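User: For a benchmark we're assembling, each entry needs the component sequences followed by a predicted structure for the full assembly. Here are entry 17's components. Please fill in the structure.
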Amino acid sequence: MKKRQFGRFGVQKNWTIPYAVFLLVFVITPLILIAIYAFTDADGQFSLANFQKFIHHGETVNTFVYSIGIALITTLVCLIVGYPVAWILSQNIFSSTSVIVMLFILPMWINTLIRTLATVALFDFLQLPLGEGALIFGLVYNFLPFMIYPIYNVLNKTDHSLTEAAQDLGACPLKVFTRVTLPLSMPGVTSGILMVFMPTVSTFAIAELLTLNNIKLLGTTVQENINNGMWNYGAAISLVMLLLIGVSSLFTDDKSGEEGGLL
Amino acid sequence: MKHLFAKLYVWLLLAILYAPILIIIIFSFTEARVLGNWTGFSTKLYQSLFSGGVNNSLFVTLLNTFAIAFIAASASAVLGSLAAIGIFNLRHKTRNTVLFLNNIPILNPEIITGVSLFLLFVSLGISQGFMTVVLAHISFCVPYVVLSILPRLKQMNPSLYEAALDLGATPMQALRKVIFPEIKPGIISGFILTFTLSFDDFVVSLFTIGNEGLQTLSTYIYADARKGGLTPELRPLTSLIFIVVLVLLFIVNQRAKKSAVHEK
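Assistant: Structure for entry 17:
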């Protein structure tokens, strides 16, 4: 009701228009263009050739599968490493938990390239070889905060009396965890998985820098095609990537997205 | 004892997370071309980072990046403030539609945003350069400004605006004297946030920057890294950026805390 009163004059309602036009031109049209380019050939004729090429082009399919594999491994490692951190932080054993949480989020605001180059520097410094191991380390390093934060958020809001009740009723610590804590934290876990998987599967540059360009991910393939003037094919791969991300986001419901929001 | 292990785990992980950044900061204070060689303490890299003026390509790149971030953040602040006030006054259904569209740039993977804008500019026949990067940055910045202003409008007492009108203020005056002060903290937080987003952006810039020699810091680093060796001056630069981001985040965080206390 309050909101209505404010808008009753209706004058400022029109102020949405510039932004709506902007969104139409710079967000919606470009996305439609990806679909148009994906379904046309270089002459602008409707064609499925791009997708046929994608399926029959062994290297791209390999890259596609490999990217999903790397993204899954990264997500799993982030979950295994990140969940305990989120849980420990939610136990309030630090004198200032908010500062520690902040320390985990902080690297997220630093340029991915700079962070990746810093990882390269670390591996050089420790005289470790670059390659697949470095790639997974770099990806985990880059995306771990995205896993910790949503899980921490959910765990932090969880009512502690629930776990206490389970303890009082005689459940062993393992059972308390598997029967109470873990199920309650699932919204955070799904949103964390999504927030790590999505950027990992579409990443590029990180792989180039951490493997000395020996390993290609899907993002690199898209960039190379666009760069070499193969816009239609690049758009088709982008569309496949968008579809993959759309499908993976179906696994989470709106609620978890809200709980795990980063802003 | 149990807590000790838990704390140890968290500190160990933080140490690993910050080790790469720490190494860069430490080695920014030595002259060696190759990272990892310590040839004694020196601030020479910091000096050469800022010397040479326009002949220093890294310095020019830094200026470009600042200019792009400043223009993109300012334009986003204006467009986003207008949009937030407008969206707030929309009917429920229309508002939800606009908010849904507003979320697309936030949820989209960077590479999709980059490719889609690249296709937009080539199909419109616009040659890519400074303007296209700015436009591209605005497109992913405005949503964050809208989201940082809307909560402020929701908290506002709606009678204040009406009271101003009843007391004879024109709608423009009421806006300037009543609504603007209320949403100002949101605009400032939004500006800082979008400035860092634009400054740090790599993927979208790479796709919209064209090939007329314009570089932002990220594309410069990328090109540099692909060539093999990293320009040593990037070490002091990275260290400085890290410190600046740290300070900015601290400010934003303090502001958020203060306003949270204020609301209580």
